[in-house]
Write a structure and sequence with these properties.
Layout (H helix, E strand, L loop, with lengths): L12 E2 L10 H8 L12 H13 L4 E5 L2 H12 L5 E5 L3 H4 L4 H6 L2 E5 L8 H7 L11 E7 L12 H14 L2 E6 L2 H8 L3 H5 L4 E5 L10 E5 L1 H13 L8 H13 L4 H16 L4 E4 L5 E6 L4 H7 L5 H7 L2 E2 L1 E3 L2 E5 L6 H15 L13
Parallel strand pairs: 1-11, 3-4, 3-5, 5-6, 6-7
Antiparallel strand pairs: 2-8, 7-8, 9-10, 10-13, 12-13
Helix pairs in contact: 1-11, 2-11, 3-10, 12-15
Bound molecules: pyridoxal-5'-phosphate.
């Protein structure tokens, strides 16, 4: 936390991702005190406790502790498919863009990508893309994947009605439904729905402890007991079985107890940041549902024009003033999390507002369009 730090001593406000948050002193104490065993022999009591706790929160039969969200998603793909099968995903999904091509490489599946601005899979599009009649030619659709909240769409919460409609379609066609719920906790807090309600339509769900919840490592794959037993074998195959993993599970249990409710703070700060950015000419902001603020500089924005001339980009200018962002071309992402308090937010708003204000650059501002 940074509230007492002066501007000159300020630690950079790191808005690249909620994964950058560091374990708090209390979480470190929980790690130090963890009772551990060898999870390879299933006798690490803290891991067992974490798995039982997450299964119960999501109202499913069982959960498996794995090192990362990527591994949880990829085990799910292996679990539900055979090589040659097809998996329907949103075209901006993490599974598609940020898992190093694992789906075709590890499971031999083709991905059927469906576009939409807001990360939502439309039931008619899914119905049209689904191939379940064996014709000797088409890849057979065995799995549909949702991401909720949808990271690429700015932490957007997928409406439950849409999910329910796709879930009914999947049930009618014997197709499994997986949820990449890396930030499902954020969706629960922001929507007021329980984790059980959000998880109910899905065959399997992956959730992460290392994002908004602030644990250093760890994710879980959640589902029916028999599936999770098969997932255990797949985890071993992928090299993800850990030994005294109770050290990490203790951080997760601490986070579940202490860091879920506080996500509302991150959401409030995301809204404040988004409102400040929305007031700046030539900046287009996606109104945040949760803790992720995505914004885009329009072609006319002087900083973008300067970047095209080889001058420092917004990311470089902001970093020089202690605000760390991620950006690609004209698009940027700022994520609020445990390590960004009100002081940090104020600093980020000051810096970004000043840098992005058209007067702060050498270009004359053309008329607003
Ligand atoms: C939506 C989503 N799914 C999965 C992951 C993967 O998590 P990990 O980095 O633990 O593999 C991330 C990571 O940020 C994510 O945003």
């Amino acid at each position: 936390m940074q509230s007492s730090e002066s501007d000159s001593a300020r630690r950079p406000v790191d808005l690249r991702s909620d994964t950058v948050s560091r374990p708090t002193p209390a979480m470190r104490a929980a790690i130090a005190e963890a009772v551990v065993g060898d999870d390879g022999f299933r006798d690490d009591p803290t891991v067992l406790q974490l798995e039982a706790r997450v299964a119960s929160l999501l109202q499913k039969e069982a959960a498996l502790f794995v090192p990362s969200g990527t591994m949880a998603n990829q085990i799910a793909l292996r679990l539900h498919t055979q090589p040659g099968d097809a998996v329907i995903c949103h075209d901006g999904a993490h599974i598609v863009h940020h898992e190093a091509g694992a789906a075709p490489a590890l499971s031999g599946v083709t991905l059927t990508l469906l576009p939409s601005e807001d990360g939502i899979l439309d039931v008619e599009d899914v119905a049209n893309a689904m191939r379940t009649r064996e014709d000797g030619y088409s890849p057979q659709t065995r799995l549909v994947c949702f991401e909720n909240p949808h990271n690429g769409a700015g932490g957007r919460i997928v409406p439950q009605l849409q999910i329910d409609a796709v879930a009914a379609l999947c049930r009618r066609n014997g197709v499994a439904l997986h949820l990449d719920g890396a930030r499902l906790w954020n969706a629960a807090v922001a929507s007021g729905r329980s984790l059980g309600e959000l998880a109910a339509p899905f065959t399997t769900i992956s959730v992460c402890l290392s994002k908004g919840l602030g644990a250093p490592v760890g994710s879980l794959l959640v589902g029916e007991r028999a599936q999770i037993e098969r997932a255990r074998r797949l985890r071993r195959m992928l090299g993800g079985m850990m030994r005294q993993a109770g050290m990490l599970a203790a951080a997760g249990l601490y986070a579940l107890e202490n860091h879920i409710e506080r996500l509302a703070e991150d959401h409030r700060r995301a809204e404040l940041l988004a409102s400040a950015l929305a007031e700046i000419p030539f900046v287009r902001v996606v109104p945040p549902d949760t803790n992720i603020v995505r914004f885009r500089l329009r072609g006319e924005h002087p900083i973008w024009r300067a970047t095209l001339r080889g001058e420092p980009s917004l990311v470089e200018r902001a970093a020089a003033e202690g605000v760390v962002l991620r950006g690609e071309g004209q698009s940027f992402r700022a994520v609020l999390h445990l390590d960004v308090d009100d002081d940090g937010l104020d600093h980020a708003i000051d810096v970004l507002s000043r840098l992005l204000a058209p007067a702060g650059t050498s270009d004359a501002v053309p008329g607003e369009t």
